[in-house]
Specification:
Layout (H helix, E strand, L loop, with lengths): L6 H17 L4 H8 L6 H13 L2 H13 L6 H12 L3 H25 L1
Helix pairs in contact: 1-2, 1-3, 1-6, 4-6, 5-6
Length: 116
């Protein structure tokens, strides 16, 4: 069973990936400093980085919003299949990425609520 990546690492991956898209420089050391605090293997983190590059956060977030707001409710298998085709990835990769994005969004909402 693969180990769940802590949300802190997922957020750092997103910030680093966004910076990479803007500057062209990827700072793996920012992620590795977080990774060293948790019991997460390098392959798992590397795969999360790959998925973040292949399926950008904003695009997956927009797809999630469209799915959540669809009426009648969009078929979830068709939703996943569409993303698989769009990004040329496996079903499990799409599901992992959706879970990562949802966890990041949940953390951001919690932080915004606590700030008020």
């Amino acid at each position: 069973m693969k180990k769940k990546i802590p949300t802190d690492i997922l957020i750092q991956i997103e910030e680093t990936t966004k910076e990479y898209r803007e500057t062209g420089v990827f700072h793996y050391t920012k992620i590795s400093s977080f990774k060293s605090r948790y019991d997460v293997d390098t392959d798992t983190v590397a795969r999360a980085i790959d998925l973040a590059h292949i399926m950008p956060f904003d695009e997956i977030h927009a797809a999630i919003i469209a799915y959540d707001k669809s009426s009648p409710k969009m078929d979830e298998l068709a939703f996943v299949a569409d993303l698989c085709k769009k990004y040329d990835v496996r079903r499990g990769d799409v599901i992992d990425r959706i879970q990562h994005v949802r966890r990041i969004l949940k953390r951001r909402r919690e932080e915004a609520e606590n700030a008020n």
